[in-house]
Write a structure and sequence with these properties.
By secondary structure, this protein is an alpha/beta fold. It contains ten helices and 14 strands. Strands 3-4-5-10-11-12-13-14 form an eight-stranded parallel beta barrel, surrounded by five helices. A two-stranded antiparallel ribbon has the order 1-2. The protein starts with 8 loop residues before the first strand and ends in a 26-residue tail after the last helix. The structure holds P-hydroxybenzoic acid. P-hydroxybenzoic acid is lined by residues 26, 56, 66, 175-176.
């Protein structure tokens, strides 16, 4: 029988009730990095997703890049996440937390005046979101090779904290121009040591991080997100097909539960094309497709086995009951851009159910 969005699927140890994933989305409603009861309500409303992937959670103070994003590295954050996860599990949902280090997509005001860190001292075009409004990105400080073991340790520690909090697993954020993606792509990685230059070298940090996280919590609880054509955050690469084919096969050797691919660009024009089917071919685990899917295209990629699951972002933000609406072909609520980032329950937990 042909599968569709509403077919069950096994993901690692989890038996998921459908193939509709809530994509990670930054909502900036965690003052001082501490998750709130309102966040528990928001995610629990969306627990009919086969899988929820939370907004990015910084893995250390160094990883912060935006106001009021949650952290997943200390005990206070873990106990606050426990409440959120309880709400989701009580509502029947499954949830992975996204492990996030922003690297150069940050600002000294988040770091007591110190520079954000990156593979190389390359200033991204654009502006950081800070507590004092939009401010130009700065030229980051290139991480010394001796510091990279500590970056790996930050991810490993955060993954352990995530399991302690009760998450069903973690997603390593290696997409959208944040730290690990900055290492992958040669527009931002100009290193001349064993972490820069060739594709093998640029992929090294991601592989070390994924290995450490898989060893700490079990590979079947780990996913990785990549974005081969996303120009957002001033990202470029000279040969993304070769790079991301290599990423997919090197990750596959570690047997994580899934590869989550942002298949579109969130900003700017792209002059390169990547054939996502090649990535799927290089990766043995589950493939989650993301980027502008509607009901018909979602069902179609699953039926043709181009993907195992489909992640929906903005449609899930505006429709807590998205799986039911897709199934019944109910009209969708209109998302309100003004309430995406920061604020209170308005535009967060008050979108109506059908
Ligand atoms: C954003 O806050 O705009 C944002 C955060 C994380 C992403 C993409 C966009 O992966």
């Amino acid at each position: 029988m042909k599968q569709d969005l509403f077919s069950e699927i096994q993901l690692g140890e989890l038996a998921l009730s459908n193939r509709i994933v809530m994509a990670p989305m930054t909502r900036n409603r965690a003052p001082n990095g501490i998750p709130t009861a309102l966040m528990g309500e928001y995610y629990a409303q969306r627990a009919t997703a086969g899988l929820i992937i939370t907004e990015g959670a910084q893995i250390s103070p160094q990883g912060v890049g935006y106001p009021a994003t949650p952290g997943i590295y200390n005990d206070e954050q873990v106990s606050a996440w426990q409440q959120v996860i309880d709400d989701i599990h009580t509502a029947g949902g499954a949830v992975f937390v996204q492990l996030w280090h922003c690297g150069r997509i940050s600002h000294p005001s988040f770091h007591d005046g110190a520079l954000p860190v990156a593979p190389s001292a390359v200033q991204p075009a654009g502006q950081a979101v800070t507590y004092a409004g939009m401010q130009d990105f700065v030229t980051p400080r290139a991480l010394a090779i001796e510091e990279l073991a500590n970056i790996v340790e930050q991810y490993r520690h955060a993954a352990e904290m995530a399991i302690k909090a009760g998450f069903d697993g973690v997603e390593i954020h290696s997409a959208n121009g944040y730290l690990l993606d900055q290492f992958l792509r040669d527009g931002s990685n100009r290193r001349t040591d064993s972490y820069g230059g060739s594709i093998e070298h640029r992929v090294r940090l991601l592989i070390e991080v994924t290995t450490a996280v898989c060893n700490a919590i079990g590979a079947n609880k780990v996913g990785v997100r990549i974005s081969p054509v996303n120009a957002f955050n001033d990202m470029q690469d000279s040969d993304p097909q070769a790079l991301f084919n290599h990423v997919a096969s090197a990750l596959s050797a570690l047997s994580p539960a899934y590869l989550h691919v942002v298949e579109v660009t969130m900003a700017g024009a792209i002059d390169t094309e990547v054939d996502m089917a090649q990535l799927r071919h290089h990766f043995d685990g589950r493939y989650i497709a993301n980027g502008g899917y509607d009901r018909a295209r979602g069902n179609s990629v699953i039926a043709t086995e181009a993907a195992d699951m489909v992640a929906y972002g903005v449609p899930f933000l505006a429709n807590p009951d998205l799986p039911n609406r897709l199934k019944q072909e109910t009209k969708l609520n209109t998302p309100d851009q003004a309430t995406f980032y920061g604020g209170d329950a308005h535009g967060y937990t008050d979108y109506p159910f059908a």
